[in-house]
Amino acid sequence: MALELKRKQNRNPLLEIYYWKDERGKEVDFLLKENLKIEKLIQVSAADLKEEIAEREIKSLVKASEELKCDHLEIITYDYESEEKIKGKEIKFVPLWKWLLAA
């Protein structure tokens, strides 16, 4: 995952990749920024069912989205695929294999 993001960064030198953590320990695995705009927030989970995705993963993503004013949210999963609205935020769940093919 990180390697593919670095490849994207090589193709687009304006792309910056960060990790986000708030004062209470909530974390987001990848924050993608281009110029001054945060383009996307990505969480990674080994889950293959919605029920297996830890609630903390979703809460952290929503918190970061609110704080950073970013609405493009993704959770990369093992095999679960969906788009859901959670706490007013649209979250896209994408299987890793599909994410890699689209990259």
Describe this structure in words.
- The model has no long low-confidence stretch (mean pLDDT 93).
- The chain is an alpha/beta fold.
- It has one domain (2-102).
- The radius of gyration is 13 Å and the shape is globular.
- Strands 1-2-3-4-6-5 form a 6-stranded mixed beta sheet.
- It is built from 3 helices and 6 strands, in the order αβββαβββα.
- The N and C termini lie close together (10 Å).
- It has helices at 2-11, 55-68, 96-102; strands at 15-21, 27-34, 37-44, 73-77, 82-86, 89-95.
- Strand 2 and strand 3 (37-44) form a beta hairpin.
Short overview:
With about 100 residues, the protein is α/β, with parallel strands linked by helices. It has 3 helices and 6 strands. The model has no long low-confidence stretch (mean pLDDT about 95).
